[in-house]
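=== Per-residue structure ===
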Amino acid sequence: MNHMKSSNLHMSTSNEEKEKKLPMLLDIGTKGGALFLSLVLFIIPIIGYNIVTIGFGVDEIEAGKWIGVGFTVVTTLLWASTYIFRVATKDMTYAKQLKDYENAVIAKRLEELDEDEIQALVEDIERDDF
């Protein structure tokens, strides 16, 4: 019976993950998404270079230097900001694993309790809420 509870729990979380899925090319967690993002990040500076040199008539060497430096600085700042955001929201692998472990330990301890112990805990929680 306990095995069925845990499998139902696992199935419900996997169904939630399936609902949140992005298309393969937009999900950075897939190989297709990583390939697509790499291609976009390769093409953006080339397009910017062509616009600046052909459209505005800027010298090719100067345009190449500034676009290269600018693109590197912008992408580095964007990457660092995503890292800081993940740290601030605790959306990192270790934090997720720790939370999953803690939930599994609590669920296991709850399974081991008798009905009267569970009822006593529920009453204690209800008493503390008021």
Summary: Residues 1-12 have pLDDT under 50 and may be disordered.
